[in-house]
């Protein structure tokens, strides 16, 4: 049984990297594709950060988390994901018509909470007879949060060296007082917008059920990471100027999908490792928010009129 489980895990991991390589070769021929960015994401997010996540959680004791009907609940979540994709694509035109900030940001956050958190949670609570606490096991004990602190520090260091967030802040030269206020408020905002919204659906719900259904923790992690990446493809395709990652003013749909696989899905790998090893919702929320903080704080501060 152990040997079969290890074989399944190895097959899923090998399959992911084979898909990554094939997508990279396909996109390499596109003039608007940044090879360096993809390779950096692969090495840092796909290799180094998962290794760090394994290292920082080596003494972690996973919180209790049970899945009652893995196949049925996975099917429900996949159906929700299809519906969410349709809503994102079809509802984009209505969302962009709201141009006033911070109303635009608040409306988008409310919509994300409804479609990624409230709706799937309501469905699973009703059909699976779960308590909400069973869906998001959480511990704020220092021993439980220690991996989050180390990985958050690694994420901030990575963005400080390789990201554009600090350079943008330095160029904008915002008032020190406004920046000091914006940083913790932006972190709290990101903890909800990317932490609660994305980690609840893709890690606490989807990855956990996929792992139980496939009888492979790594299988659930890999598939959830791929779906996590692909959910960003509509944004790269429909609003490339707002994402900052995609090159080219009008990327093709294939380029957007390929970019989502070889860049965005790699972030799902180390977040998936953290969830797999801790089953602590607070850990993945904190780390995800910290990794998005430096590139996000200046746009957030401008949207909420803290800086010009």
How would you explain this protein's 3D organization?
This protein is an all-alpha fold. The protein has one domain (2-303). The protein has 14 helices and no strands. The protein is globular and about 60 Å long. 39% of the residues are buried. Mean pLDDT is 89; it is low at 241-246.
Task: For this entry, give a set of tags.
308 residues, mainly alpha, 0% strand, globular
The gist of it:
By secondary structure, the chain is mainly alpha-helical.
Oligomer: single chain
- Count every beta strand, where a strand is a DSSP E run of 2 or more residues: 0
* Gap from first CA to last CA: 60 Å
How many domain modules? 1
Computed CA radius of gyration, to the nearest angstrom: 19 Å
Average of the residue pLDDT scores: 89
Strand content: under 5%
Helix amount, in percent?
A: over 70%
N to C succession of SSEs? HHHHHHHHHHHHHH
Q: Report on the biggest sheet.
A: none
Number of helices: 14
Alpha-beta classification = mainly alpha
* Envelope shape: globular
Query: Which blocks of ≥5 consecutive residues have pLDDT under 50?
Result: 241-246
Protein topology:
Blueprint: H1 2-28, H2 35-56, H3 70-90, H4 92-96, H5 103-128, H6 132-135, H7 142-162, H8 165-172, H9 176-214, H10 217-230, H11 233-238, H12 240-243, H13 253-278, H14 281-303
């Amino acid at each position: 049984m152990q040997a079969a489980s290890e074989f399944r895990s190895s097959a899923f991991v090998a399959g992911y990297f084979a898909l990554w390589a094939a997508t990279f070769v396909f996109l390499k021929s596109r003039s608007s594709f940044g090879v360096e960015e993809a390779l950096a994401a692969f090495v840092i997010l796909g290799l180094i950060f998962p290794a760090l996540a394994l290292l920082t959680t080596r003494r972690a004791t996973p919180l209790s988390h049970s899945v009652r009907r893995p196949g049925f609940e996975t099917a429900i979540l996949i159906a929700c994901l299809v519906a969410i994709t349709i809503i994102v694509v079809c509802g984009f035109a209505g969302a962009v018509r709201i141009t006033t900030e911070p109303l635009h940001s608040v409306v988008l956050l409310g919509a994300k909470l409804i479609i990624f958190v409230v709706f799937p949670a309501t469905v699973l609570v009703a059909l699976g007879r779960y308590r909400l606490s069973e869906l998001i096991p959480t511990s704020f004990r220092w021993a439980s949060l220690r991996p989050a602190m180390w990985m958050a520090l690694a994420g901030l260091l990575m963005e400080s060296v390789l990201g554009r967030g600090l350079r943008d802040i330095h160029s904008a030269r915002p008032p020190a007082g406004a920046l000091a206020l914006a940083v913790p408020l932006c972190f709290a905002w990101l903890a909800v917008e990317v932490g609660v919204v994305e980690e609840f659906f893709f890690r606490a719900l989807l990855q956990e059920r996929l792992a139980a259904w496939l009888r492979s923790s790594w299988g659930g992690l890999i598939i959830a990471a791929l779906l996590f990446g692909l959910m960003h493809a509509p944004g790269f395709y429909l609003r490339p100027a707002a994402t900052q990652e995609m090159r080219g003013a009008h990327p093709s749909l294939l380029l957007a999908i390929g970019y989502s696989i070889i860049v965005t899905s790699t972030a799902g790998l180390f977040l998936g490792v953290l969830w797999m090893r801790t089953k602590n919702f607070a850990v993945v929320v904190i780390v995800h928010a910290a990794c998005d903080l430096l590139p996000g704080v200046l746009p957030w501060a401008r949207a909420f009129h803290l800086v010009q």
